[in-house]
Write a structure and sequence with these properties.
Blueprint: E1 10-11, H1 14-21, E2 27-28, E3 42-45, H2 47-55, E4 62-65, E5 68-69, E6 72-73, E7 83-89, E8 93-94, H3 97-107, E9 112-118, H4 123-130, E10 136-141, E11 145-150, H5 153-164, E12 167-168
Parallel strand pairs: 3-4, 3-10, 4-9, 7-9
Antiparallel strand pairs: 1-8, 1-12, 2-11, 5-6, 10-11
Helix pairs in contact: 3-4, 4-5
Length: 172
């Protein structure tokens, strides 16, 4: 299986959208269960997930958010990590630059915010692909809760399958 970081933007094909609705980890509502709070790194994808964790006293190592939830503006409620990286990532896509930005955030010794101009949803795939094993990537499902992805070789394999099935976006 190809696990080479793409050098071009990727778009999620329509037929892969259903596949992504199946979660790879447990869905929890409310706070992050205690058994996950010591995982390293903790990557939060989404505004609401980020605020839930910070309100619980957990500062994620990486917070990825776009200021939008359920297609409406979202005003952050909790203080985000001071260091902020910015990225443009259109809806339904993974921008090629996102790989470098998320890797830089993961490698940083202090917590980092990644502020997305566009949509962060598919950046959970990049986060899982880049996250060291034993870490967790958490993203939200509106009206259901948070999906906790414990990163191991199997979840990475499934994530790379999805990434490798995405469509290359031609420039120009």
């Amino acid at each position: 299986m190809n696990r080479k970081i793409p050098k071009h933007d990727l778009k999620l094909p329509e037929d892969s959208r259903t596949e992504l609705k199946e979660t790879l980890g447990p869905v929890v509502s409310g706070d992050l269960p205690q058994e996950y709070t010591d995982k390293k790194p903790i990557i939060a994808v989404g505004d609401v997930v980020t605020d839930i964790l910070i309100k619980q006293g957990i500062t994620p190592d990486v917070c990825i958010y776009d200021g939008i939830t359920r297609r409406g503006n979202y005003d952050k409620k909790e203080q985000r990590p001071e260091k902020t990286l910015n990225i443009k990532n259109p809806a339904g896509m993974i921008a090629s630059r996102s790989w470098d930005v998320i890797q830089e955030a993961i490698d940083n010794e202090k917590p980092v915010s990644v502020e997305v101009d566009g949509e962060e949803d598919l950046l959970s795939l990049v986060s899982i692909a880049l996250c060291p094993e034993e870490g967790i990537v958490i993203y939200g499902i509106p009206s259901k809760g948070m999906v906790i992805n414990e990163v191991d070789s199997e979840i990475k394999r499934k994530t790379w399958q999805v990434i490798n099935n995405m469509t290359k976006v031609d420039e120009g």
